[in-house]
Amino acid sequence: PDVIIEAQFDDNDAEHGQDHLQDMLTDDIKKLSLDTGEKGKAAGVTGVHRAKQDDGPKVNDPWLLPDEFLQRTAKVVYILEKKHSRAATGFIKLLADRNSELFKRCAMFSPVDHRVPRVYVPLADCPPDFVTKPEAYSQMLFICRIVDWKEDSNFASGQLCKSLGQAGEIEPESEGILTEYGVDFSDFSPEVLECLPQNLPWVISPEELAKRRDLR
Fold first, then answer.
1. b/e sequence 155-178, b meaning 16+ C-beta within 10 Å
2. Domain boundaries, the chain
3. What are phi and psi of 173, to 5 degrees?
4. For residue range 9-45, what is the model confidence (pLDDT) as tens digits?
5. pLDDT tens for each residue of 122-134
6. Which residues form the CSD2 domain (predicted)?
């Protein structure tokens, strides 16, 4: 694709005009295509020796391309630090293959965040009537935590932690987001609450107010 064709012609050729020049270029392109095809067949027969003698362009050889034209690839060999909480919000549904042995043991968890893989969860973690009435839980949000992901499996393995409620409601959606990002939103312990002023209503003293910057 990177071959440049140069046409040389004398004064007699110029008299025939631009049409004659285009015809010449068309014929040269056809000849070049035929020659390239024959050279390809010959290279397939003679092997490496023929390839070394060929001085034509080798654009198909990735080793001859500049680095900026190459797409580097890599393989993950070790997880140094687990930044994700391994918890996700999503929905549960039955497996498609009802005749498989896995259908009797697991359900499929589909996360709302598409960056998180789908997860096999035990049926024991699902509601008792989930198998008989799966449509009743089609819009129910659940929290699932990934516990394993085998190399030979397309899906991870996890456990259902809790049911949040109906999708679209503010409280279940908010709790799911906080859980996914590992934010502790549980109630403060009595020890923490004892650190707060006990005499209510509490006001800032004039001496303390003089040392503070008022942002009200």
1. ebebebeeebbebeeeebbebbee
2. 87-181
3. -65, -40
4. 444 444 445 565 566 666 766 665 555 555 555 545 4
5. 999 999 999 998 9
6. 107-182
Q: Do 102 and 140 meet the contact criterion of CB atoms below 8 Å apart?
A: no
Which numeric CATH code is attached to 87-181?
2.40.50.700
Residue type (1 letter), 130: F
Task: Give the number of other Cβ atoms within 10 Å of residue 193's Cβ.
Answer: 10
- Whole-angstrom Cα distance, residue 158 to residue 120? 6
Contact call for residues 160 and 121 (beta carbons, < 8 A): yes
What is the Cα–Cα distance from 157 to 146, expressed in whole angstroms?
A: 6
If one counts every other C-beta atom within 10 angstroms of the C-beta of residue 90, the result is 22
**Phi/psi at 201 (5° precision):** -75, 140
- pLDDT-derived band at 197 (thresholds 50, 70, 90) equals confident
- Partners of 142 in the β-ladder: 90, 163
Instruction: Dig out the tokens for 130 from the structure.
Output: 């989930």
